[in-house]
Amino acid sequence: MMGPAATAGLRGAIAAKPFAVKGLFIIPFIPCSCMNPQNTTGRIPFLPVIAGLMVIVPVLIAAGCTGSIPSAGIPAGDIPAPDGSRWVLTGYLSGGTLAAPMDGTTITMEFGKGGSIAGTSGCNHYFADYRLDGTKITIGPAGSTEMACMKPGVMEQESAYLKVLPLAASVSAGSDTLAFADASGRTVLTFTRLVPPAPAPLAGTNWTLDSVYAGDAVSSVISGSTVTAVFDTAGRVSGSAGCNQYSGSYTVNGTSLMISSLSSTKMNCPGDGIMLQENTFLTLLKKTAGFTVTGNRLTLTDAGGAALLSFGKGS
User: Fold this and answer.
1) Which of 3-7, 143-147, 305-309 has the lowest mean pLDDT?
2) What is 136-180 written as a DSSP string?
3) Per-residue pLDDT at 192 exceeds 80
4) What is the DSSP letter of 86?
5) Residue 283 region, left (φ>0) first, then alpha (ψ -120 to 50), else beta?
6) How many CB atoms lie within 10 A of CB 230?
7) Among 108, 128, 105, residue whose Cα is nearest residue 120
8) Please, where in the chain does CATH 2.40.128.270 lie?
């Protein structure tokens, strides 16, 4: 049984260097080439023709048997949730051994508020709930967007990671490392602490939309379309809404952001969902009341702090 010192070490290692981030997707987006839409199922119908609606993916596989990791035996809630800590995958169980992620792919995990985790699984964004009890951890079924990445092996790796995730039964941590073991004590996932790049400036950065939020649902941008936002230093915002060009005014006060006087060209573009996506984007811009920039990611939020639109830094 681990003593108070060991438990304190675990708490400090996981919760050290927190990053307070609003929004669900607060990790760097890893763009995937040749993304094709797939049919999805979500809790809230939204942009039904847009690929990337959240789905609930029950992921369970049988665990092996190699030994055991002792539990700290501490009552639930004794170790605070490690809100804000961010990690990048270094190994996952595959074929009975730990495999390193494919070159050119990044899989991440961030502990959010209220017992949630989220990240990128190499192609899609995912999220799940978790419960921490001493060194014991329970991770629920994962939900995710459903883009299809064409690079060989990426989708297979993503599927393997999401299947292993709920096998985690215990957690151990160093100052910059995190490891999950299954109920038998076998290590199934290993991570190292993610150090994000310095925040990109709001003004002067070419921001490219990748996620649209509607309550608990999130949609990816339609494959083949590009939606952008550029905030200049004179208080103007402009870009492509996916079909038409738009422009407007904006004001910033700390993390408050107001966008007004939006106008756009009036073309009608073909393609399933393109005009609906455009109208939704422009409507959400008008509802923007705040923003956060974390590394190369911009999230616009409403007056209650809920995420509306999420962008990555464009080229």
Assistant:
1) 3-7
2) EEEE--EEE--EE--STTHHHHHHHHHHHGGG--EEEE-SSEEEE
3) yes
4) E
5) alpha
6) 16
7) 108
8) 4-193, 206-313
Neighbour count for residue 125 (Cβ, 10 Å): 25
Q: What is the mean pLDDT of residues 162-187?
A: 94
**CATH number, domain 4-193:** 2.40.128.270
Model confidence at 83, in pLDDT bands (50, 70, 90)?
low
Distances, alpha carbon 129 to alpha carbons 166, 250, 265, 267, in Å: 10, 36, 43, 43
Contact 227, 211 (CB under 8 A): no
pLDDT at 45: 37
- State the Cα–Cα distance between residues 185 and 163, nearest whole angstrom: 17
Please state, in angstroms and rounded to a whole number, the distance separating the CA atoms of residues 184 and 294: 37
Measured distance CA(118)–CA(161) in Å, rounded:
13
Residue 36 DSSP SS3: strand
Residue 174 half-sphere exposure, CB side, CA atoms within 13 Å?
7
CATH among 2.120.10.30, 1.10.1670.10, 2.40.128.270, 2.30.30.520 for 206-313: 2.40.128.270
Rounded CA separation 281/183 (Å): 45
Decide: helix, strand or coil at residue 117: strand
In whole angstroms, give the CA distance from residue 87 to residue 93.
17
